[in-house]
Design a protein that fits this description.
By secondary structure, the chain is mostly beta strands. It has a single domain, classed as Hotdog Thioesterase (Thiol Ester Dehydrase, Chain A, Roll). The protein contains 1 helix and 5 strands, in the order E-H-E-E-E-E. It starts with 12 loop residues before the first strand and ends in a 7-residue tail after the last strand.
């Protein structure tokens, strides 16, 4: 049986890291954080990203992400990427589809 997350928002998951090189740095960071907050066995359905400030390669960042809502088949997440000084670099939201997980007999 697959457990369903509560309908209420979850406590944000915080992780730290460094911005990768390239113009999609914030997208890579936010999608990874949103997927981690959503849990295991998920496939992305949609990702929305809003940029606030550009990131430099190697820059220290903090990612925060949480589940806003979950149903039997979908998980809705929201998160943000913060620069070391606390300045907002990007916000994002994603919808993930739950994948069928076979249980061992």
């Amino acid at each position: 049986m697959t457990s369903v997350l509560p309908d209420s928002p979850s406590t944000p998951v915080r992780t730290s890291g460094q911005a990768p090189a390239g113009p999609g740095a914030a997208a890579v960071l936010i999608e990874t954080a949103l997927a981690a907050a959503g849990g295991e066995a998920l496939a992305p359905v949609s990702l929305t990203l809003d940029y606030a400030a550009p990131l430099q390669a190697g820059e220290a960042v903090t990612m925060e992400a949480s589940v806003e809502r979950a149903t039997r088949t979908l998980v809705f997440t929201h998160g943000r990427v913060l620069r070391a000084n606390g300045e907002l670099a990007a916000t994002g939201s994603a919808v993930f589809r739950r994948l069928a997980v076979s249980s061992p007999d």
